[in-house]
Amino acid sequence: MRFEGEVVVVTGAGSGIGRVIAQRFAGEGAKVAVVDWLPDRADAVAAEISAAGATALSVHADVSSRQQVDAMVARVASELGPIDVLVNNAAIADGDDVLQMDEATWDRDLAVVLKSVFLCCKGVLPSMIERGSGAIVNISSVNALTALGNEAYSAAKAGMINLTQGIAVRYGAHGIRCNAIAPGTVRTPIWQARIDRDPAVFQRLVKWYPLGRVGEPDDIANATMFLASDQASWITGAVLPVDGGLLAGNYRMTRELLAEAGNEKLDS
Ligand SMILES: NC(=O)c1ccc[n+]([C@@H]2O[C@H](COP(=O)([O-])OP(=O)(O)OC[C@H]3O[C@@H](n4cnc5c(N)ncnc54)[C@H](O)[C@@H]3O)[C@@H](O)[C@H]2O)c1
């Protein structure tokens, strides 16, 4: 039980990766605030956790709203206690090609993906500083590190990485650690619209993944819990790709380049 009695806030915990992260922390003894702007989702996940015998608090909040984040942090502190771990996981990804994206879409993506991290960190840091400890894990994306489309989302995810480093450096002396995870493709409902258009999308994407599969929410939960735990007590400001090897390189392209250079063995 790595998180016995600790208070953990997971944003966007009503679905996908956030839901599994919330469940897994609860399974290791944490009291979990399940934060989502869709009330039914937050309530359902909190109910699942409570039914499994752990403590969960459903909090309905839009994490891009300063007022709602402040109210969320105050409610968690008063009902569960001071916050030990913050997982910034909520996101949307609406904006794509710059030429086709309107300003409102850009602003909304940036607000939900990046401003939310600023607001939630601003909310939890004072009490972490006061107690001299705390861990923040920001769920970024491989999109932060290379061009993969969804330009507004990707730019915001890249900004999240620098914010992670800034917080790590500024508050390390207060015993606070802040790290980021860059997931590759993970099988969650965020993909539903794309699956509706292309039911075989995951099978097609697998070819880019050296480990031969797309990710599951548990893959991201494993890394999140490691970074939040004492096992990572000397890790801060880091960005951990959890991506089945995607960012390590493009194997197909490498094979073609090596084949062009006359290495027939690799072109078998
Ligand atoms: N699934 C992937 O392939 C993948 C890949 C890389 C990174 N990620 C990142 O992982 C995280 C989780 O993604 P997911 O696939 O589980 O998505 P998801 O859509 O299944 O879940 C996201 C949840 O966040 C909530 N949410 C969205 N905006 C919110 C807001 N303003 N306030 C509060 N809640 C809000 C949604 O209601 C939803 O319940 C995101 O940060 C995403 O960018 C996902």
Describe the structure in your own words.
With 268 residues, the protein is α/β, with parallel strands linked by helices. It has a single domain, classed as Rossmann fold, CATH 3.40.50.720. It has helices at residues 16-27, 39-51, 66-79, 103-131, 151-171, 192-197, 201-205, 217-228, 251-260; strands spanning 7-11, 31-36, 56-60, 85-88, 134-139, 176-183, 239-242. It has a seven-stranded parallel β-sheet with strand order 3-2-1-4-5-6-7, with helices on both faces. α1 packs across α8 and α4 (103-131) runs parallel beside α5. The longest helix is centred in the middle third of the chain and has 29 residues, at 103-131. The chain binds nicotinamide-adenine-dinucleotide.
Distance from N terminus to C terminus (CA atoms, Å) equals 48 Å
Over all CA atoms, what is the radius of gyration? Answer: 19 Å
Principal-axis shape: globular
Strand order of the largest sheet: 3-2-1-4-5-6-7
Give the number of DSSP strands.
Answer: 7
Tally of separate helices: 9
Mean pLDDT: 95
In the CATH hierarchy, what is the architecture at level 2?
A: 3-Layer(aba) Sandwich
Order of helices and strands: EHEHEHEHEHEHHHEH
